[in-house]
Amino acid sequence: MKIVKDLYVGESAKKEKRKILRGLEKKELQPFVYVITLPLGRHGVLDILPAFTLKYPFFFTGDPGQLKIVGIAKGRDEAFGLTARIAMDTYNATGGFNVREFLED
Amino acid sequence: MAKKTTFVTKEQIEEIVKAYPTPFYLYDESGIRKNAENVYKAFSWNEGYREYFAVKATPNPFILKILKEYGCGVDCASIAELKMAVKCGFSGEEIMFSSNDTPAEEYEYAAKIGAVINLDDFTHIEFLEGIIGDKFPELMSCRYNPGGVFTMGNDIMDSPKDAKYGMTKEQITEAFKIMKTKGVKRFGIHAFLASNTVTNDYYPTLARELFELAKELEEKTGADIEFINLSGGVGVAYKPEQTPNDIDVIGEGVKKAYNDILVPAGMGDVKIFTEMGRFMLAPYGVVVTKAIHEKHIYKEYIGVDACAVNLIRPAMYGAYHHITVAGKEDAACDHVYDVTGSLCENSDKFAIDRKLPKIDIGDYLILHDAGAHGYSMGYNYNGKLKCAELLLKENGEVSMIRRAETLKDYFATFDFCDILENADEI
Fold first, then answer.
1. Architecture of B283-414 per CATH?
2. What is the pLDDT of residues A52-92, one digit of tens each?
3. Is this complex scored with an ipTM above 0.90?
4. How far lies B325's CA from each of A53, B188, B240, B339, B370, in Å?
5. Most buried among A79, A93, B101, B395, using CB within 10 Å?
6. Which of B119, B121, B123, B181 is the best residue to mutate to test the A interface, defined by the most A CB atoms within 10 Å of its own CB?
7. CATH ID of B28-279, from 3.20.20.10, 3.40.50.2000, 3.40.5.60, 3.30.70.270
8. Which residues of chain B neighbour A32 with C-beta distances below 8 Å?
9. DSSP state of B243
10. Which residue of A has its CA nearest to B170?
C-alpha cells in the first residue's frame, strides 16, 4: 500500500489525519474512515473503500500492496465529495479524467 | 429404525376435505403448545430466557399468537414480518430484528417500534447512523461470525467462513466500543453457525464459544452484555433413522456451559435467547395431498395435487420429508415410487425412489415435518396457487388460519391497469 505525496484529505478527516494515517499503516480497524485509491485493475477511475477492507487481502483481485491511496475521508458522504473533487481537479488541470496520470505526475 | 408417526388420521382427513380441498397445510395445536412448554421448561434455569420464534419459519399470525401465550418473542427479518409481529401484539424488546443486507426503511421501522436491532455488519453502524442519527437505542445486538469451519468432535458441522452473516471478532469488538459512544448501554451477541443440527451437542458447543466471546468482549470493551442469542440451528429428525433432539438435554448442556464460564466471570445475570423456528414448528405441521395420477414409464410415478409451490424444500435442497399414506400406516412398504407435483420442473418431486405402501388414486399422502420453512418458502411458479393453512385444535376441531390463494390474488399485481381485468372469471 502506498500513499501519494499530495494526498487529498476530507474536511472531517483533516482533524484526525495523523491518526488515520497511522491506523492505515498498522492496518487498524478504523470505523467511518474511507480511502480513495487508484483502481488495482486497468479499468475505472477511482475506488472508494472502507479503510478496514485493506486488512482483507482476499477482497482484492490484484496485490493490495500495490494499492495507491490518493485520498482519505471520514464518512461515506465525505468520501464521495472528495472523489468528485479529485475528478474535477483532474479535469480542470488536464481536460480529461486520467486521474492516474494527473496524480502520478 | 424408529417409525415416524403423524398426528392426523385418515378418518380425520376425510372429514376435513369435506370443507377444505387438498392440498392443505395442517398444524397440530396441542403439539405446538406441548413443545413450547417443554422448551421453556428446559431453559427455566435462566431467569431471562426467551425464545424468539423465527417468523420466517411459519409466518402465520394465528401460530404467532399461540406462541406468544408462552412468552415467546419473535425474530423478524423484514418489514412484513415486523408489521405482522406488531399486529399480533408483540412490542418493543419482544421483537428481535435480525436482518442482513438491510434496506434503510426496515431499520427505520424497527427503530420506530423499539425492536432489538441485531446488526449483521460493521458497516451497518454508519448506515444506521445515517437513518436514526447519532443516538442509538439503549439495547443493541451484533451478530458474530467466527470464520473457519465449525466442528464438533471430528465432524464438520458447517462452514461459517463461507457464510454471509455476522462480523469478525475484531469487528464486533470495535462495534461495541463505537456503539457505547452512541448511547448503547445494554448489549447482545448473536451467532448462527450451523443449520438443522440433529445433535444435543450443538447448542452447548455454540454456547461455550459465545460465552467465552462475551467474557472477552466485556473485558475489552466494558460493554454490559445483557443477552446471548444462540439463534437457530436446532433441527428436527426429518428421517426415521435420526434420533430427535432432546430439548431437556440441550438445556442442561447450555446450563453447564453457563455455570462453567459465565457465572465464575460474574456474568450470571446474562439472559439466554434462542430462535428455534424449525424446532418449534416443523414437526407440528404437515402437508396433506391427494394422489391424482399414476404413471408407469422407466420408473413408477405417483402424481399428487400438491407441488413444489406448496413445499419447495425437496425440490430446492433435495430435503427429505417423510411420507405417510393415510390409512396404510401399517402396510408393508413394498413399492418404490417417485412422488411428484405438477410443475414443469423435473425437480418437483416430494420423494425419489421412496419405498412406500401401494398407493391408489385418491389416497391421501401426509408429508411430515412441513410446519417450518414449508408454506413460507412457497412461490407461484407455473401460476400454481398456494394452498390453505388449517389448524387442528386441541378439541379436535379444525379451523382455517389462512385461506388458499385464488386466481384473483395471482392476477392482483396487474390491477393497476385493465389488461387482465376479470381474468379469474373467464
1. Beta Barrel (2.40)
2. 888 887 776 677 677 899 999 999 999 999 999 999 999 99
3. no
4. 55, 46, 15, 12, 16
5. A79
6. B123
7. 3.20.20.10
8. 126
9. P
10. A29
